[in-house]
């Protein structure tokens, strides 16, 4: 079944909601660091984004597959390096989804004060998970509606602010412009630029679902996003500086600046409209996260980095298992942070900028290693180096940036607390065959060691058993009564461990006529030996006088130190007692 692909408006709306929602916080954020120069830093960001248009256009044009920076590095370096970019992208989407959903519900809370923010945030994440599972076409319709309403709301806000300024003048802007700068202007612009780079977060999203777009749409989405960011973000920062004193922006309106601007320029109705718009467009950013991460993780699954379990699709062609997993991950992060998603800012900042850097690096590798691949456009070497340098500067600035709350952890520490477990998981999945082989080798080694140990124990026990069974018993008899000998055999079988028995008859030297007895004696012993095959029975005729001296002599001769047995059975009784005969056990 051919899946319907997205056009320009739908594709622009999906990724545009993410990048254009940044206007809700980036103006106040950049003013917080750059002060009156914030609008200039945002214009610099627009120039950097212009350079990245060509970089993204060249890479995705040559490799039109989902995955963004992951796809770029996968085709120019190794899978492990590409997995690093994938991990950073996933973290960026995770932070975007949680922060956007939570901030949307905070804006909604201004309108409906009884709203439970945590429950509402989980509900919003669930709604867009279900919407994404229903199919990208249905999702794009919602995203398009949100995007159009957002642009309408911002246009309306800009119109009323400009009308207000035309009537009341730009005195507030001039007052802000003349404020002294904390530190140097260079440092203010440096930190402001670093913070303002968050205003282009979401620009990478279009590359992660390029396979769902119609041919030629991708480059147009980049152009449209650049136009929106280049106009809206610097304009809103300029208008904010024209309406609100910088100290008030930093202290009171860091999260609700645009709503406050609407209230100042036209009243509460416009403030409420901007709040509703904030709820919708931040919700759209959640949707963008779901769509972007679905394309990325599906590509990683196809490359066998993740289990094939995630490739299962529903009737609408959505990888619903990936979406469910991402929903569970996002909710768990929300619960772990207990709704204080501000701690995710470090993850959001560093991961996004790292992805931008890796994409630029992938462009360089594509030029060098895959130069023969056809591509619709080419970024010049100078523009690539300038763009990468700008991202590095912003990355360094965000790493050095002190958190606004003195008790808050640094961006780096928060980022590492999420990045390290994530990269370990991806590394394990990437190398799971090698790890399983190593575990198999260790298991075999341990098994062989234990087997050898048990074999040694078994051999030792067998030797002990054999040594016990090898002990000889000697039975002295005067008669050839087979019934008595049978009792002897039963006794030995039931009470002793020996497998060797000597049946000895001591012949008196003076009694030379014992030939008939000896013949009967040997036949009797042969019968007993055949009857008890488990015991080796030997018949012996010894000349001498029975007593301790003869027993001692035979003990030394046969090297049998113990268990000499002499059994007499007068009548029908089987009697015996033990006496000490020079260290030899004698049973009489």
Structure commentary:
- This protein is mainly alpha-helical and 588 residues long.
- The protein has two domains: 8-401, Amino acid/polyamine transporter I (Up-down Bundle), CATH 1.20.1740.10; 471-586, HUPs (Rossmann fold).
- Helix content is 69%, strand content 5%.
- It is built from 22 helices and six strands.
- The strands form two sheets. Strands 3-2-1-4 form a four-stranded parallel beta sheet, with helices on one face.
- Helix 21 links the parallel strand 2 (500-507) and strand 3 (536-543).
- Helix 7 (136-168) packs parallel to helix 11.
- The longest helix has 39 residues, at 432-470.
- It starts with 7 loop residues before the first helix and ends with a strand.
- 44% of the residues are buried.
- Mean pLDDT is 82; it is low at 562-588.
Mean pLDDT: 82
CATH class of the largest domain equals Mainly Alpha
The major sheet is characterized as: 4 strands, parallel
Share of helical residues: 55-70%
SS element count, helices: 22
Which class of secondary structure composition applies to the elements?
A: mainly alpha
Q: Give the CATH superfamily of the largest domain.
A: Amino acid/polyamine transporter I
Approximate shape: rod-shaped
Tell me the fraction of residues in β-strands, as a range.
5-15%
Task: Based on the coordinates given, report the CATH architecture of the largest domain.
Answer: Up-down Bundle
What's the alpha carbon Rg, rounded to whole Å? 45 Å
Question: Number of DSSP strands?
Answer: 6
């Amino acid at each position: 079944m051919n899946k319907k692909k997205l056009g320009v408006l739908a594709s622009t709306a999906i990724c545009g909601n993410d990048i254009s929602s940044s206007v809700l916080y980036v103006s106040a954020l950049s003013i917080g660091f750059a002060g009156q120069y914030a609008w200039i830093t945002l214009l610099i960001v627009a120039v950097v984004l212009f350079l990245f248009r060509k970089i993204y256009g060249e890479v995705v044009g040559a490799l039109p597959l989902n995955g963004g920076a992951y796809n770029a590095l996968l085709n120019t370096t190794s899978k492990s390096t590409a997995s690093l970019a994938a991990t950073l992208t996933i973290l960026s989407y995770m932070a975007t989804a949680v922060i956007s959903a939570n901030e949307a519900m905070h804006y909604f809370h201004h309108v409906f004060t009884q709203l439970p923010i945590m429950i509402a945030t989980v509900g919003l994440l669930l709604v867009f998970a279900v919407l994404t599972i229903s199919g990208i076409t249905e999702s794009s319709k919602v995203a398009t509606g949100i995007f159009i309403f957002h642009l309408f709301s911002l246009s309306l806000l800009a119109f009323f602010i400009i009308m207000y300024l035309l009537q009341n003048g730009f005195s507030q802007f001039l007052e802000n412009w003349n404020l002294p700068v904390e530190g140097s202007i260079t440092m203010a612009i440096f930190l402001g630029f670093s913070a303002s780079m968050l205003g282009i977060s979401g620009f990478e999203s279009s590359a992660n679902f390029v396979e769902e777009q119609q041919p030629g749409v991708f480059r147009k989405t980049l152009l449209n996003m650049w136009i929106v960011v280049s106009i809206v973000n610097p304009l809103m920062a300029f208008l904010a500086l024209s309406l609100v004193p910088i100290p008030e922006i930093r202290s009171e309106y860091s999260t609700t600046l645009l709503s406050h601007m609407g209230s100042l320029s036209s009243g509460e109705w416009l403030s409420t409209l901007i709040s509703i718009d904030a709820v919708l467009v931040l919700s759209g950013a959640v949707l963008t996260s779901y769509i972007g991460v679905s394309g990325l993780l599906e590509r990683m699954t196809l490359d066998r980095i993740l289990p094939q379990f995630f490739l299962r699709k529903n009737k609408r062609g959505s990888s619903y298992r990936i979406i469910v997993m991402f929903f569970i991950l996002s909710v768990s992060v929300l619960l772990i942070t207990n709704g204080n998603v501000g701690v995710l800012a470090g993850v959001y900042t560093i991961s996004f900028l790292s992805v931008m850097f890796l994409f630029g690096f992938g462009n360089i590798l594509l030029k060098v290693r895959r130069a023969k691949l056809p591509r619709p456009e080419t970024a010049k070497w100078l523009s690539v180096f300038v763009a990468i340098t700008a991202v590095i500067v912003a990355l360094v600035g965000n790493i050095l940036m002190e958190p606004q709350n003195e008790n808050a952890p640094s961006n780096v520490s928060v980022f590492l607390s999420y990045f390290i477990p994530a990269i370990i998981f991806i590394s394990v999945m990437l190398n799971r065959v090698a790890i399983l082989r190593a575990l198999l080798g260790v298991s075999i080694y341990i098994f062989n060691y234990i087997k050898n140990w048990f074999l040694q124990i078994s051999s030792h026990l067998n030797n002990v058993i054999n040594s016990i069974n090898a002990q000889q018993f000697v039975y002295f008899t005067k008669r050839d009564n087979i019934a008595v000998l049978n009792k002897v055999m039963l006794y030995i079988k039931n009470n002793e461990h020996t497998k060797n028995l000597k049946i000895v008859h001591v012949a008196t030297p003076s009694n030379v006529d014992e030939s008939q007895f000896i013949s009967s004696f040997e036949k009797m012993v042969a019968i007993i030996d055949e009857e008890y095959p488990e015991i080796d029975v030997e018949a012996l005729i010894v000349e001498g006088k029975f007593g301790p001296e003869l027993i001692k002599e035979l003990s030394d001769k046969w090297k049998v130190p113990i268990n000499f047995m002499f059994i007499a059975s007068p009548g029908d009784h089987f009697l015996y007692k033990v006496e000490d005969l020079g260290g030899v056990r004698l049973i009489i």
